[in-house]
Design goal:
Blueprint: H1 12-17, H2 26-75, H3 77-81, H4 86-98
Length: 99
């Protein structure tokens, strides 16, 4: 505890209680900041894990769509061959999926 630091504006009672600022209670400030950093690192790790799960799910969905598109092309080749654009094919594909 540094009771004589001129940058501190805390009343004496606060300084003595241990609830002071970073100047009169530097170790408390360090401990608090360390705890905040630990919490942020943990949250970052959780977000990274979530991001990896979402990327894996997204890739699985892409593969499913491609497999479904291939299956539809195989079973409904004559219907899809008359569609003039890929956008129309995709619209028809999603309409079938939603049914």
């Amino acid at each position: 505890m540094s009771l004589n630091d001129k940058r501190c504006k805390c009343p004496f009672a606060i300084k003595m209680n241990g609830d002071g600022c970073q100047y009169c209670q530097p170790q408390t400030a360090i401990d608090l900041l360390s705890s905040v950093v630990d919490d942020l690192e943990e949250e970052s790790d959780q977000q990274d894990a979530r991001s990896r799960r979402l990327e894996a799910e997204n890739e699985a969905l892409r593969k499913s769509v491609e497999e479904l598109r291939a299956a539809i092309n195989g079973h409904m080749h004559s219907d899809l061959s008359s569609i003039e654009s890929q956008q129309e094919a995709d619209s028809k594909l999603w309409a079938i999926i939603k049914e």
